[in-house]
Design goal:
With 487 residues, this protein is mostly beta strands. Helices cover 10% and strands 59% of the residues. The protein contains 5 helices and 27 strands.
Length: 487
């Protein structure tokens, strides 16, 4: 009981403790067969921040005499009957298996363990490519890989790891440096490839990051250096390419990001994309080891086909023509959408915004009013739109949303919140034409509006994006002039 372990290189340095060690010897094997057969029970072995409990069995080859029964070089198998290992929040449970040895060199073996309630199986055998070289296979629900590795001085070289990780094809090679030292690290580079809809990420991760509803062909090349002692010092760079990407109702022909991880910060200075015949550029950063997961992102969209975009969002063909440009700056915490703050603008040019579902009721009423004032008026074609906006308190707010044609404009102020709720005050106004059309326009309408101002109506847009609700109000003097029922 209360065994103390000291560093072999510094005998005065205490390396660990064992609360108790018990050994059971099989005397029949020792005295009759001249073979060592024993079970060892280890309770609470502490080594740094590692805590271990285990039951281990040892069997040996027959000895030539009783004095050699305990010779370590005669050990034939090490049986791990049960072992639990804990390091901080990492827990490996129910470890069991068998190692086969020859002259203290492991020839092959099998180990089964449980991690996060998932079973893992490790198979390995010695190969002849290198001294201390092995071929290992790891298998579980989410991983199935094989690799050759070997010991080289103080490092373990990983030559050609290949296989499947969470439904992704994985290749990797690297080096576990100073594997017996406290400062050991894994340096590696590799690739990942998959179709996102065929990947099999763990359910909690998939649902948290919405991976279960993403589609696309993913390719990633990466390089990293990961110190075991402190992952906050992870150093990494990677290039991520996703083609034919789809998330919910958003689609992109191509999405490319180049990023680095250094001192706990993930930084992507290059984000490029091709979507709806336009382009996406931007940058992104996040403190990935901060529990609040703060982030900052800047995005710019140019020459987006608005008809394709709005049709994709509504999952039906909508003839809303035009080209969209937009910029957005956003920062906050991934864990709390109430923390999000940002700003941006949206511009739509040379379009036909009338078919937009949320606008159709309002434009229909406005057009009916114009027809009664000027019976020969052409169809109102809302060609352009603009708004800048702020994001705060789970709302997207604007006071200058404007959609206009050659003859009229719609202005709005209000907000859309993160739950899809709408609250806007909307007005329209006449835009006086120039040139030859000005005189005929004035003849038909100036006398009517001169006494009542340029605003012919106002409205309130409430409800939700899925079920918008319009409430119309008209300037009283116009009620008698409007022939169509408006309420």
């Amino acid at each position: 009981e209360n065994v103390q372990l000291y560093d072999k290189n510094t005998p005065s340095l205490l390396a660990g403790n064992i609360k108790s060690v018990k050994m059971r010897l099989y005397l029949r094997a020792i005295f009759i067969q001249k073979e060592l057969k024993t079970d060892i029970f280890i309770t609470e072995l502490t080594f740094g921040d590692i805590l271990l409990n285990a039951m281990i069995g040892i069997d040996s080859y027959p000895a030539s005499g009783y004095r050699k029964i305990f010779d370590p070089s005669l050990i034939k198998t090490i049986r791990i009957e049960h072992m639990d290992v804990k390091k901080n929040d990492l827990l490996l449970r129910g470890i069991n298996g068998t190692l086969y040895l020859d002259k203290l060199s492991v020839i092959n073996g099998k180990i089964v363990l449980s991690f996060n309630e998932k079973p893992y199986t490790l198979l390995f055998e010695k190969n002849e490519k290198h001294d201390y070289g092995y071929t290992a296979k790891i298998n579980s629900d989410y991983i199935d890989v094989v690799s050759d590795f070997y010991k080289d001085n103080t490092s373990i070289k990983i030559e050609n790891l290949t296989g499947n990780l969470y439904g992704m094809a994985l290749t990797l090679k690297g080096e576990l440096k100073d594997f017996q030292a406290a400062g050991r690290s894994l340096d590696a580079d590799g690739t990942l490839k998959t179709s996102l809809d065929k990947a099999s990420f763990p359910k909690d991760i998939s649902e948290k990051y919405k991976l279960n509803i993403m589609q696309g062909d993913l390719k990633c090349t990466f390089r990293f250096s990961a110190p075991f002692k402190d992952l906050n010092n992870l150093d990494m760079d990677a290039t991520l390419l996703v083609e034919n990407y789809k998330f919910r109702r958003i689609e992109a022909k191509e999405f490319l990001a180049k990023f680095t991880v250094s001192k706990g910060i993930l930084y992507a200075p290059v984000i490029n994309g091709k979507m709806y015949n336009g382009t996406l550029t931007g940058d992104f950063s996040s403190e990935i080891f901060n529990s609040d997961r703060p982030f900052s992102i800047n995005l710019s969209f140019k020459d987006i086909n608005f008809e394709d975009l709005i049709s994709s969002l509504n999952e039906t063909k909508i003839n809303a023509l035009g080209t969209l440009s937009s910029e957005i700056k956003l920062k906050g915490s991934f864990n709390d959408d109430a923390s999000l703050v940002g700003s941006g603008f949206i511009m739509i040019e040379n379009g036909d915004l009338g078919p937009m579902p949320v606008l159709t009721p309002y434009l229909g009423k406005s057009y009916a009013v114009l027809q009664n004032f000027v019976p020969g008026i052409k169809k109102v074609l809302m060609k352009n739109g603009y708004t800048d906006f702020q994001i705060k308190n789970r709302q997207i707010l604007t006071n200058n949303l404007t959609i206009w044609s050659e003859t009229m404009a719609i202005t709005a102020a209000g907000y859309l919140d993160f739950d899809g709720n709408l609250d806007f005050y909307v007005q329209n106004e006449f835009l006086e034409p120039e040139g030859e059309q000005a005189e005929s326009w004035q003849d038909g309408i100036t006398n009517v509006i001169s006494g009542f101002g340029k605003f012919i109506s106002k409205a309130y847009l409430k409800g939700t994006l899925k079920k918008p609700e319009w409430k119309f109000e008209y300037v009283n003097p116009f009620k008698d002039l409007i022939k169509l029922p408006l309420f």
